[in-house]
What we know:
Chain A is of the alpha+beta class. Chain A has helices at residues 87-107, 111-128, 132-167, and strands at 2-8, 26-28, 39-41, 54-67, 70-81. Chain B is elongated and about 70 Å long.
Amino acid sequence: MARAYKCLRPGRVGPFSGYSWPIGEWVEADDAALCVRGVHSCRTEDLPYWLTEELWEIELDGEVRQEHRKLVSERGRLERRVEGWTSSSAAAFAEACAARVQERAARAAGDGAERLAELAGDAAANAAKGAAALVGYIAARAAEVDGGVDGYAEERLAQARWLVSELGLDAG
Amino acid sequence: MAQVETAEAELLDALRAGQESAFTALVQQYQPSILRVARIYVQNPATAEEVAQETWVAVLDGLDRFEGRSSLKTWIFRILANIARTRAQRDGRSLPFSSFGEESGGPAVDPDRFAPAGERWAGHWKSYPERWDTVPEERLLGGEARRRVESAIRRLPPAQQQVVTLRDIEGWSAEEVCSALEISEANQRVLLHRARSKVRQALEAYLAQG
Amino acid sequence: MLLSEDLTCQELVELVTEYIEGSLLPEDRDRFEQHVVLCDGCAYYLEQMRTTIDVSGSLTEEAIAPEAQEDLLRVFRDWKAG
């Protein structure tokens, strides 16, 4: 059995399936409301791509496939909510991302400088709204300006590390 | 599926045996859809009624030849399409039904609503579409919204009109539509996408009137 | 310099039907959903398309006129009589 995380909308609702997840009950992949391919969940490094209002620990069972930016399993059981993930920690996450963009912009010289300055503005504006997923994305795009695809991926990992340490997640 | 097939086989037996109740059930089930589809081809309501009637005659005459390789429903609508097409041609309405691929396309959303190339968020919304989940249901599903949608569908090119009518108004599956119209899955999706995108635009224009 | 993985909103609106139909390749579905998670504009757009489908589905069927039903029964009786 494996532990993973699941990003849900308020009230334990799947952001795409619209499925209301029960707590503590096994949910099968072929339950009508879910993706036919399986129950989707996140390793900690996948979380920055999928952040929503609620974060839950989920236990997985059966075959678990590691896919790009997610896990897909036969069964999943919602265990408990990560209480530390709230609108204020989401705002703190966004601020931390925006701060990294700001640092990047301050260091930048040459072609990318102007673009990074603009992205820093975008990140700050959206961080003020607490838009965690969006600011995470902007920060990754900013990292891409000087670091290319690897920079993008590294920034996402930095975001995941923030979540692990600030929320006390199990990085597996 | 097996149940559906059994029910259909029983219905066919009853029809072939001349049971009037079986025919009445079939008419109740399909006549409204047949009329709706016929009107896409011929427009004149009286002509559409005639096309529908001709379709039923052809269905009855063909019953013995029907082998059940497609469902009864798609078979009926294929007959309808042939009759309606012939009738439209005879009346001088030559609709491009044979060239299902060559329909006016255009983007789903006005390109002006996205930031232009060269800007840092090129291709992203300049300003977001409105939320509709906060629009009162009586406005969204009320008579006027439905009229706007209906008239938007009527203004679509025929093939798009046909696909969206069968899929979204009549609730057919993609497979049924492909089979009845004899088009590919990919073609069906393209037509449906263009049709739905334009219907959404019409609804958006209506809701924006406040 | 766009990461090939990132969809723009303009690309996304052209994929909405395939997304709803469930005919996107798994990797494209993931790209679609990752975009929707962070883009309220596209989330609203997706919702609008679903609502549009619902409104189309609510267009009422006219009931069959009794005369039409009678006409068709006559067709049936003629056919039966051969």
